[in-house]
Amino acid sequence: MPELPEVETTVRGLARILDGQRIERAAVHRADLRRPFPPDLVQTLTGARVTGLGRRAKYGMVHTDRGRTLVFHLGMSGRWRIDPPALDKHDHLVIETAHHRLALNDARRFGSVDLVQEAELDAWPAFAVLGPEPLGADLTPSLLRAATRGRKPPIKLLLLDQRVVAGLGNIYVCEALWRARIDPRKRGGSVTRPQFERLVPAIRAVLEQSIADGGSTLRDFAQPDGELGYFASRFDVYGREGATCRHDDGGVVRRIVQGGRSTWFCPQCQK
User: Fold this and answer.
1) Which of 269, 271, 76, 123 has the alpha carbon at shortest distance from 183?
2) pTM across the whole model
3) Where in the chain is CATH 3.20.190.10?
4) Does the active-site annotation cover 152?
5) I want to staple 36 with a disulfide (CB 3.0 to 4.6 A). Which of 32, 52, 65, 219 is the partner?
6) Tens of pLDDT, residues 145-156
7) Is 3 a catalytic residue?
8) Are 270 and 178 in contact (CB under 8 A)?
């Protein structure tokens, strides 16, 4: 599944093509993805000028001068293709400007496209329940400690809860916990303030490094221009079961299952 860095990379790629441009044509090539396309999507987009792009958690946003925002989620394998030489059978939404064609490609159809009134974005149900952005100033050690105080679930699972932190996914939680030397099995309420003071900058560093590298490129993900990122080659624990810990502590990376998802960590240095 594309995670926050992949979505941020996608939005930045789309901004280079769409920001300030007028949409001359829009077309949908099926009725739905995970849920139906908005019935007035084509009518709303055609002729609209793009006034900006943004991201909230794992959602991308295309703002228009009509007071409505296209909100997209890439699901498991969705991606935007820029100027494809030919349309693919999985190109379900196509947008054209004077100079470019963009196609939302989603073979598994777990993604979504919505139209939301600009003034109502914060109150939109999918956004209203989200926690702070991990790259924003609102995510602090104090906030995380308050959100997890007295909680029994493992810190790994709490960090995946979008109500605690918006947009964090399995890859980057594993990597951040390793950098902060926190055992993913540790109860959330038992994580100490010094550990949270290490964790918050670790979360930001992992995400910012991946964004700079262009995303982790697991399985189907690609940047809008078709180029793949290369952060995947830099994983310190994710997918490295049995490998020597890069903290040079004599530890070996171990894999366990938490909440139905794999967790990679080093029992030697993560306490």
Assistant:
1) 271
2) 0.89
3) 4-128
4) no
5) 32
6) 999 999 999 999
7) yes
8) yes
